[in-house]
Amino acid sequence: MPAAAADSFRFSSDDHPADEAFALYARLYSRGSDVSRGAGPFFAQVRGWRLDKVLLFERRLSGVIHARRERIADDGFDHFVLTHVLEGKVRLLAPGPARLLGPGQSILLDTRRPMRTEHDDALILTASIARDVVEAALGPAGRLHGQVLAPPDNRVLGDFLASLARHGDTLASAALPALGRAFVDILSSVGGDAARAGREDQRRDLGRREAVRRFVIPRLADKALSVDAIATGAGISRSSLYRLFDRQGGVARFIQLARLDALRRTLDAQDPAAPDDAALADRLG
Predict the structure, then answer these.
(1) Tens digit of each residue's pLDDT (9 = 90 or more) over 142-190
(2) pLDDT digits (tens, 9 = 90+) for 88-97
(3) Are strands 34-37 and 64-68 parallel, antiparallel or unpaired?
(4) Which of 48, 86, 2 minimizes the C-alpha distance to 164?
(5) Which of 101, 142, 220, 240 counts the highest number of beta carbons within 10 A?
């Protein structure tokens, strides 16, 4: 039996009438971005994969603008977006002067802060990355918004993202945690020795949170899942467990969010053979 593959999706403006394609694309991104028309004809082709703590997209875009301003205070987004340009141009407006990114350049953007990107026949790879992953790789997040990563420092990172995109449809779910750890290591190589200093604690805590997640996810149906059981199963102390999830609202909040994410994935699959609401609720605790 083949191994389960990573979750994926596709969108192409070519699959829709010209007068409907942009509205459909804007709706696709409406939860996280204000989408408007840019200069020239509109075109969008998107492939996406859900990896381990990373959402990876390969997008060819033209004539479209993405912006985050007023929505920042309301939508609760709390991650970073890493964009790597393969072809074309991306015009960026973030704090500081406007910049034009070309092939081979990458940039980090914090979804808690304003940003605006306009795409001119651009082929880009974008990775939505959990904040704790970015901080484990590059240090405190406060200084990272709008940071450009340029060749030669970012070449291995760009090659790794491109390889994930090439093989995204065949990546087995069991391989994703290891690839996620590799991503942290490769991202950390971009910041230089000074940026890497003092991050051993963040890297250790990231590994411990991953161990907790690996223990909890298969046990979501256990309504009595306890702190003691999780600490023992993940091989850490109770006090360390509480500290690890203090900034995320506590251990109980982490379990609740894991159950909600599993529910969302099940509902998104829209499988006619899926269990009814009562059975689904019982299965997810």
Answers:
(1) 888 988 898 999 999 999 999 999 999 998 888 888 888 888 888 888 8
(2) 999 998 877 8
(3) antiparallel
(4) 48
(5) 101
Closest of 175, 144, 162 to residue 79, by C-alpha: 144
Residue 187 token pair: 């991202």
Contacts 24+ apart (CB under 8 A), 28-32: 29/66, 31/75, 32/68, 32/75, 32/77, 32/111
Burial of 212 (0-12, 13-18, 19+ CB in 10 A): buried
* Tokens standing for residue 33: 């971005």
**54-62/43-50 β-pairing:** antiparallel
The Cα–Cα gap between 7 and 172 comes to 10
Q: What is the pLDDT of residues 4-32, one digit of tens each?
A: 566 888 999 999 998 899 999 999 998 88
Written as six digits, the tokens of 243 are 């500290």
**149-to-67, 135, 176, 181 alpha-carbon distances in Å:** 21, 16, 25, 20
54 burial class (0-12, 13-18, 19+ CB within 10 angstroms)?
buried
Given the structure tokens 């940026």, which residue do they identify? 195
